[in-house]
């Protein structure tokens, strides 16, 4: 289980999030929805300590992974990255690197040692979980950049899975993809959900309803930092929103 408590975030003196708390249960998919600029990506990056890579960025609050604060001073950055993977809107495989090497690219970075047999195993199982194995099993030595957009995104999912994370964060993972690839990735997410906690940012309300059991609606006021207006089970959020602003947003009146 991943839990954010009182997350407040700044870029310089520009506050972009105000006391955001959210529990993202294991075995579930949580969707973060809301208009552009309300801090969804910032929140997601805080969940795996990417926010601190921006020199002007600062934050307050806690992120607990199964009860452990990932920001405790003695915790290493790579431990957080190993446990909490991330997939971005634009597929970003290493284009000249082989499909095989792309999948295992994260192992070295996170300090995981693996011999050849172990690597072969991780490549096959990760590609299978990402729904890409059958399409690429005969060309694992071909460059990752030669795949279609949807395949590249699944390769990035496989790359994240190879380090066997407990959480997978996905920032608009299908926004740049065609409907067929989107479907394949949604099916992949649903299959993964039993073993990996998934948090997805999406602007696609149908997608939020298809994949997630829980949603959080983010909003930022004029000149005000972003926060969660409402969160809860997806059915309730779409069927019986408690806040007028949520109702307007999920019904496309925004
Ligand atoms: P969303 O993902 O909901 O569209 P973001 O988290 O990307 O929102 O952005 C939230 C706010 O933080 C916006 O006002 C944006 O301009 C600002 N912001 C995001 N990244 C940076 C950055 N690296 N430096 C300064 N401001 C940023
Ligand atoms: Mg964003």
Explain the overall architecture.
With 254 residues, this protein is α/β, with parallel strands linked by helices. It has a single domain, classed as P-loop containing nucleotide triphosphate hydrolases (Rossmann fold), CATH 3.40.50.300. Helices cover 35% and strands 26% of the residues. The protein is built from 11 helices and 10 strands. Strands 6-7-8-3-9-10 form a 6-stranded mixed beta sheet, sandwiched between helices. Strands 2-1-4-5 form a 4-stranded antiparallel beta sheet, with helices on one face. α5 packs across α7 and α7 runs parallel beside α8 (179-192). The model has no long low-confidence stretch (mean pLDDT 95).
How would you briefly describe this protein structure?
This protein is of the alpha/beta class and 254 residues long. Helices cover 35% and strands 26% of the residues. A six-stranded mixed β-sheet has the order 6-7-8-3-9-10, with helices on both faces. It has a four-stranded antiparallel β-sheet with strand order 2-1-4-5, covered by helices on one side.
Blueprint of the fold:
Layout: E1 2-11, E2 14-24, E3 29-33, H1 40-47, E4 57-65, E5 68-69, H2 77-83, E6 84-87, H3 99-103, H4 105-109, H5 116-129, H6 133-136, H7 149-161, E7 167-171, H8 179-192, E8 197-201, H9 205-211, E9 214-220, E10 226-233, H10 234-239, H11 244-250
Parallel strand pairs: 3-8, 3-9, 6-7, 7-8
Antiparallel strand pairs: 1-2, 1-4, 4-5, 9-10
Helix pairs in contact: 5-7, 7-8
Magnesium ion binds next to helix 1.
């Amino acid at each position: 289980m991943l839990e954010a408590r009182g997350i407040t975030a700044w870029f310089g003196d520009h506050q972009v999030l105000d006391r955001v708390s959210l529990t993202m249960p294991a075995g579930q998919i949580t969707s973060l929805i809301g208009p552009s600029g309300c801090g969804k990506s910032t929140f997601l990056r805080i969940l795996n300590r990417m926010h601190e890579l921006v020199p002007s960025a600062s934050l307050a609050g806690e992120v607990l992974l199964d009860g452990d604060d990932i920001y405790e001073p003695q915790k290493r950055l790579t431990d957080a990255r190993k446990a909490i993977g991330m997939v971005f809107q634009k597929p970003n495989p290493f284009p000249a690197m082989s499909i095989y090497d792309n999948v295992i690219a994260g192992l070295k970075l996170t300090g995981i040692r693996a011999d050849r047999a172990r690597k072969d195993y991780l490549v096959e199982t990760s590609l299978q979980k990402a729904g890409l194995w059958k399409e690429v099993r005969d060309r694992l030595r071909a460059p990752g950049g030669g795949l279609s957009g949807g395949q590249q995104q699944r390769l990035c999912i496989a790359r994240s899975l190879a380090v066997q994370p407990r959480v997978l964060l996905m920032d608009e993972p299908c926004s740049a993809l065609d409907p067929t690839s989107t479907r394949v990735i949604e099916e992949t997410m649903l299959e993964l959900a039993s073993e990996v906690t998934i948090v997805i940012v999406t602007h696609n309300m149908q997608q939020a309803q298809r994949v997630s059991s829980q949603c959080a609606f983010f909003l930022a006021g004029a000149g005000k930092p972003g926060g969660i207006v409402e969160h809860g089970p997806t059915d309730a959020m779409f069927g019986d929103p408690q806040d007028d602003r949520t109702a307007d947003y999920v019904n496309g009146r925004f």
